[in-house]
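#struct-help
A.M.: can someone run this one for me? Single chain, 261 residues.
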Amino acid sequence: MSIHPTAIIAEGAVIPASCTVGPYSTIGPNVVLGENNTLVSHVVLDGHTTLGNGNRISPFACIGIPPQDLKYKGEPTRVVIGDNNDIRESANISRGTVGGGGLTQLGSGNLLMCFTHIGHDSLVGDQCIFANNATLAGHVVVGDFAVVGAFSAVHQFCSVGKYAYIGGGTMATQDVMPYSLTSATRENHAYSINKVGLERRGFTPEEIKQLRAAYRLINGSKLNMSDALAAIQEKVTAGEFGEKVAYLADFIAQSKRGVIK
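D.P.: on it. Structure tokens below:
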């Protein structure tokens, strides 16, 4: 086991021999690491925190720290992190709160750039990218393959759909639709689908064509949202639109804060 002599490991922490713990890192008594995790240096792991395998955590990152919520009174809430995440310098992930379900979760294969903040009770999927200073307030849900741009923030209780791309400096105060490009430079509007990102993720031309048609019904027609969703559902039932569009319609129908159009 490679543990630097300046690291402080509390009794009770579980650290496999395949892990590397760098200088001046501190690990709390209720932390459980999987295999092949690397803590570069000055990393803080606290609370009831569980990491999967193959994660790399850069200097001054803090995971499992108490939530920034005045209602929190030290309850044993959790952080659960998957595999092969790259958590860069000074990123922080707060543990959950009792009122929010008690769990903050990060999936696998994510990149958290410098100063990313994952607030309490947030649930993040797989293969997401958070650029420098991206911020999730508490209780945010982020779908797989989403991108949150630099200096962007997502409001409490908002959801970000799969494959969405939030441009730098955007304040998302409503749900961000799947597949969309949303940007503060367009007055926080979803102004297009994330065509380049979808192509890179293997979407077929037909799937992108269907998503464009669905977005035209939502944003470009004179239909209100209920009628647009009904029209989309008719095409899904008829087989004109596939599962990707069905997920989009489902996401909008379940939105509690409304979506950014």
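A.M.: thanks! The two ends are 52 Å apart (CA to CA).
D.P.: also worth noting: Residues 205-220 form the longest helix (16 residues).
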